Amino acid sequence: MRLAMSIFAISLSGWCAAAPTSLINATLYDGTGAPAIENAVVIIDQGKLQCVGTDCRVPEKSEVIDLKGQYITPGLVDAHVHYAANGSFGTRALTSPDPEKYDLDKIQRDLKSNYWRWDRAYLCSGVTAVLDAGGFPWTLDLQSSSITSPDRPHYVSAGPLITHTRSEMSTSVLEKQKALGTSEFLPMHSDKAAVDAVKQLAESGAFAVKVWYIKPEEKFRADLQKRMKLIGDEATAHGLPLIVHATHLEGAKAAMKAGAKVLVHSINHEEVDEEFLRLAKDNEVIYEPTMAGGELWAAGDARLFFGEKPEFDDPNASIDERTRNLMESEFQELHPIARKEQSFEWITGGLIHMGEHASIMERNLRKVHEYGIPVATSTDAGNPFAFHGPTIYTEMERMERAGITPADIIVMSTQNGARAMGQLDRFGTLEKGKNADLVILKEDPGKSTKAFRSITHVMRLGKLHDVAELGGGDRASGS
Asked: CATH number for the domain including 40?
């Protein structure tokens, strides 16, 4: 056995040992909710966990890394992201104050060519797996290569969203998307269209079927709920889970009755009731609260209106320079438009409205958790001001502010995220036979979720990355 060495005494960026690796003396949270293990030993060989605990025998030829005084958790899982969006206004036409100014085809081609920026940002933030909950068709092509790559988070995509409404987007933008074949939406205006949409997703290799269910007018409600059930049945027939965006109570109940296994976003208009909780528990639904997204967006809109600069909460410098520069230039270009089309009352009203929603979301998160319904940490990253990577820190801290304990948030951010991805057999907990996906921290995440801002290293499939070297600006390529 080689001499034990401190992780700070050598450069381990991109290090993937040919011999087994042994991490010793850290305090370990395994992601199952069990008490922390002090002086833990983790044996890694060929990208897999060979032993985790206090009674592991360090192999004779192992590389030994002494982590005394540090902490280990499973790699974080962000169970709701959008790779076809970059955190600015212009990536998705429905998020922009001026959608006509953007060339969506050019934007999407650029994102497709440079998705490695998001891969790097997630690893830099300690995120080793992500679920893309809807986007343009090209995102489906990113899935297979991520499974065995130590330089990418494990990635699954739902592909285009099935929806009954596109009212948020201008007619000309919709026509342009259709002509270019770049639409991120599939229709459900008829039973046939709904069934065909599911078949298209199944044939294209989507991980799941995602329905974007915006509260419809009363006269359409019954028909759309029946159609969502039809979509759920068709998804089941193809072996795909149904995940649904429904932020109002009635729509969420309809989604679960249709077979939804994941509810993305909080119920934010009213408190959940006993029927909702029973449906979620009985149907083994996973609840994704996305607590921070709306607050970040509302605060960003206010900064834009008042002529402030965009804010980047990015402790590891994981947000690349291109994204930062794009956001800063958009603020300059869109500030006059925001001042013209919006008002002081509209902006302040939005902040008040968001505060009211946040209070409801917090109460609902506590209710759901106390009822025993699994909660998965998710950020909706890619939408304005929800940047890929570091937004997960904000999200976990918002969940703690809502009254969830740090110990429970570790489970929500690891095991439950893996469950939402259908990958709990591969990762999400630190157990023998699973992927060697983990993070190393200076501070104790069992005491505060802010400890995740102290991540120093992330391991993906046994390859150890120094986050200080992953972050810090743009690169010419993803290699």
From this structure: 2.30.40.10
